[in-house]
Amino acid sequence: MVVTLNIKNGRSNNYDYVSLLVMKIKVISFFVSILFFSGLAAQGKPVKMSNSGICHAPNTTYYDQTKNFTPYKTLDDCLKAGGRMPKR
């Protein structure tokens, strides 16, 4: 890689390149952390199969309202156990 050092307004292109690289790293780190922590948050909550056989995943409409349920680690496990997806 060739970096030129053209001076304009007292700053070099090298400085601009480094600041752009740092900004890209910060943006990528931000999105990676969001994905990582959202996965951890959802990982702690089980999928709930209600007594009527409906599988409620975390962050769905009736998840918090479902009180009598059988917990499952994944939605796939709940469906394999005979549950079904909610109609809404």
In short:
The chain has 88 residues and is α+β, with helices and mostly antiparallel strands.
Write up what this structure looks like.
The structure is a single chain. With 88 residues, the protein is an alpha+beta fold. Helices cover 42% and strands 16% of the residues. The protein is built from 2 helices and 5 strands; from the N terminus they run ββαβββα. A 3-stranded antiparallel sheet has the order 4-3-5. Strands 1-2 form a two-stranded antiparallel sheet. A hairpin with a 4-residue loop joins strand 3 and strand 4. The chain is rod-shaped, with a radius of gyration of 24 Å. The model has no long low-confidence stretch (mean pLDDT 80).
- N-to-C CA distance: 54 Å
Strand order of the largest sheet: 4-3-5
What proportion of the residues form beta strands (DSSP E)? 15-25%
Gyration radius, rounded: 24 Å
Order of secondary-structure elements = EEHEEEH
The helix content is 40-55%
SS content category:
alpha+beta
Q: Write down the overall mean pLDDT.
A: 80
Envelope shape: rod-shaped
The largest pleated sheet is described as: 3 strands, antiparallel
Low-pLDDT parts are none
Number of helices: 2
- What's the β-strand tally? 5
Annotation keywords:
two-stranded antiparallel ribbon, 2 helices, 88 residues, three-stranded antiparallel beta sheet, 5 strands, alpha+beta
Secondary structure elements and pairings:
Layout: E1 7-8, E2 11-12, H1 13-43, E3 47-50, E4 55-56, E5 69-72, H2 75-80
Antiparallel strand pairs: 1-2, 3-4, 3-5
